[in-house]
Amino acid sequence: FSGPFTDVVTTNLKLRNPSDRKVCFKVKTTAPRRYCVRPNSGIIDPGSSVIVSVMLQPFDYDPNEKSKHKFMVQTTYAPPNISDMEAVWKEAKPDELMDSKLRCVFEMPNENDKLNDIDASKPAPVLNTSKQDGPIPKPHSVSLNDTETRKLVEECKRLQAEVMKLTDENRHLRDEGLRLRKVAHSDKSGSPTALALRDNGSNSLPSLLVVIAAIFIGFFLGKFIL
């Protein structure tokens, strides 16, 4: 029996009948209060075997105390008609009885065995096979990039709308400048009004160039951002 003996310790005995006749068996012990035997008696058919469980009850183990517990397996050939097992044992003659004696041995596990049992009971570490070498991007960083992209797209659309608006205004100013030039050429009298209109037309040309340059710069910036 292997300790620790703080709980029930079970050892199995295998009884085999090598004869060609039925055999009755009975298991006896010198310490019946310390052991529970199942089955403690029975019949074994020819060539068959039976497993007997011997259960040692919990007790305070003393390594200095030698074990004096013994078992005896007693057997006899079964009569042709068996009606009462107790009568078979009472009526059996001494020369018809066979017995095998067993001495109980108690063993406590070594310290190394305890450590091995503890290590075996520990769960194996789980390795994270999905670990990446580089840093894993966080989900919220991805959402920030998407938000910035949407803002840039909206800003580009707004700039394109302003470019189209400025283009229309430039076309309108250009048409207005042509009209003023025609008025200036048609007015040959050299009146102050014609001179004033001519001056306004000439002053509007540099502002038109600045507007056109701003339109093209905004347009190319929008294409570059997209």
UniProtKB/TrEMBL annotation:
Which residue ranges does UniProt annotate as crossing the membrane? 205-225
PROSITE patterns registered for this protein in UniProt: MSP
Return the Pfam families for the record.
Motile_Sperm
Source domain of life is Eukaryota
Where does the MSP domain start and stop, copy by copy?
Answer: 1-107
Protein's GO biological process: neuron projection development
In residue numbers, the region (Disordered) covers: 114-143
Which subcellular locations apply to this protein?
Answer: Cell junction, Tight junction; Cell membrane; Endoplasmic reticulum membrane
Q: Which InterPro entries match?
A: Ig-like_fold, MSP_dom, PapD-like_sf, VAP
Keyword vocabulary terms for this entry: Acetylation, Cell junction, Cell membrane, Coiled coil, Disulfide bond, Endoplasmic reticulum, Membrane, Phosphoprotein, Tight junction, Transmembrane, Transmembrane helix
Question: Which SUPFAM superfamilies does the record cross-reference, listed alphabetically?
Answer: PapD-like (SSF49354)
A GO term, aspect molecular function: FFAT motif binding
Q: Coiled-coil ranges per the record?
A: 149-176
UniProt topology in membrane: Single-pass type IV membrane protein
A single GO CC term for this protein reads: bicellular tight junction
Q: Which family does it belong to?
A: Belongs to the VAMP-associated protein (VAP) (TC 9.B.17) family.
- What's this protein's function? Endoplasmic reticulum (ER)-anchored protein that mediates the formation of contact sites between the ER and endosomes via interaction with FFAT motif-containing proteins such as STARD3 or WDR44. STARD3-VAPA interaction enables cholesterol transfer from the ER to endosomes. Via interaction with WDR44 participates in neosynthesized protein export. In addition, recruited to the plasma membrane through OSBPL3 binding. The OSBPL3-VAPA complex stimulates RRAS signaling which in turn attenuates integrin beta-1 (ITGB1) activation at the cell surface. With OSBPL3, may regulate ER morphology.
What name does the UniProt record give this protein? Answer: Vesicle-associated membrane protein-associated protein A
Q: Which organism is it from?
A: Columbina picui (Picui ground-dove)
